[in-house]
Amino acid sequence: MAAPLPQANIPAQEKSPWACQAVAALPRLLGNFCTDPSNPSLGQGDRRFWKWKLVDFGNGSFQGAAHGLAVLLKAGFLPEWLPENQILAWIRHMVQGARTLTRANGSLEEAFPHESSFCVTGLAAYDLLSALRWTGERMAGEARDELLSTVAPMLRFVVRNDETHGFITNHLAATTAACFLWNELGDPSDTLVLGRGQDLLERILGAQSQEGWFPEYGGADAGYMSLALGYLADLHTVRPDLGLAEPLTRAVEFLSHFAHPDGTFGGVYGCRNTRIFYPAGAAILAGGETTHGLAAGLDKAMGRSADAGNCVTLAAMDDLNLVPLFNQYARAALARTEPERAEPDSLPCEEAEPFVRHFPEAGLVAANQPDYYAVVSTHKGGAGCTVGKQGDHRLDSGPLYRDTKGRFWSGQSYNTNNTVNLEGSSLTIAAPLRRIDHQLPTPGRFLVLRFLNVTLMRSRWISEWIKRLLVKFLITGSKGAVATNTRTITLGSEFAVQDSLDKELDLKPVAPNTAVYATHMATSGFFQPGDKA
Fold this sequence. Notes:
40% of the residues lie in helices and 13% in strands. The protein is of the alpha+beta class. Strands 6, 7, 8, 9, 10, 11 and 12 form a seven-stranded antiparallel β-sheet that branches. A five-stranded antiparallel β-sheet has the order 1-2-3-4-5, with no helix packed on it.
């Protein structure tokens, strides 16, 4: 029997779940990458493409793992079986893989061939430049030149192009950070890239709600907001002169409401249903020159939860979501080594005094009572969760009915026009009831998509237009309503929910003990302890 892999040599005072779990994920992460020098896919990380040969393109987002490896090297958290020279070799392979995956127009792909993904191109540029930032003099000369020459066409692409199928802050934030890092590490005289970074940052800050949240497809989502926070907080450490301190403070204050007493985070009440906590933003803002007490409280609470395995962790990720979370865990681990750390403030769910807080733009209501903490989405018909202070977690996917044909009808579709009335501890939400229609791939649909990918969608304008149609079809669009459901929620000392329809229909209410998602979102539904079958 083979001996177990040795653990990282992490000093006790710096040991954190972010560091330990990032190190534990290294064999799985590195196993995705091709190291065969005879293979033209050397350094590529999408095994479905280069090893299984089940897809006809390589997903460029895997190449960003160079970032997390460089951070672990910087922090001194490498295990004994992965010495410095091997880390640097892996990073150079990943740079080479990114170069061979880059299309002639400078773009990378995530979902289909010739996609010209603004998101993945900007993210890969950010991750590779971050790898250079944290390796420093260890990557000099030819290695540095290779990395910069690989990133340069990616940045040319994001300067010339935009993402038009939705306002997605985490995509824009990563690309913004890439532009400013290029100015610091690549070409300080490149005014085009710097100007693009300034333009994107203005758009991000201009879109921030007065309530503190940044939009993801037009709404507030705790999981993806924590990811965007990580990119923006990291940018703040590079360019503290950009005026990010106040917007980030408001963002943390908003985000802190979605950490629950049992250690879970976010969920079905978010516009994108995510419940992954990306820890870098809170960890960065808790230390250094920022020392934000509420960020420290969030980092402490979610770190304790990850250590106990109470929330979605790195171990639960599928391969397509592994790299961004790995990088965030590594960056959070490095941030915890800062000598100056703020004293953690109490999170809203830890406050002694009861409250009901309404964020009308986000469509979210948070209620704290002695026995429970609840979050409800008014934009999703009353979907939410109630978490007992002793750990009992009650998930509610919103109004849900089933007809005689076995079809499900839900009030969960995201709708900012729902009628909402909040008086004291009584919350009433009137939302349209629509049929849930989960679309699955078929050979015929894939044939049509691939035909479009290699013909009409080679045009950037047509590709973005079709993406907008797909987003509307799978995420933001809504089919016609058959009725209006009125949900009345009591947020007092006892939590109670009552639903009623405005017309007689042959529908029966159902209350499953697992999550129901009325819209498509790939980065949702990851396992956490407490999930039921």
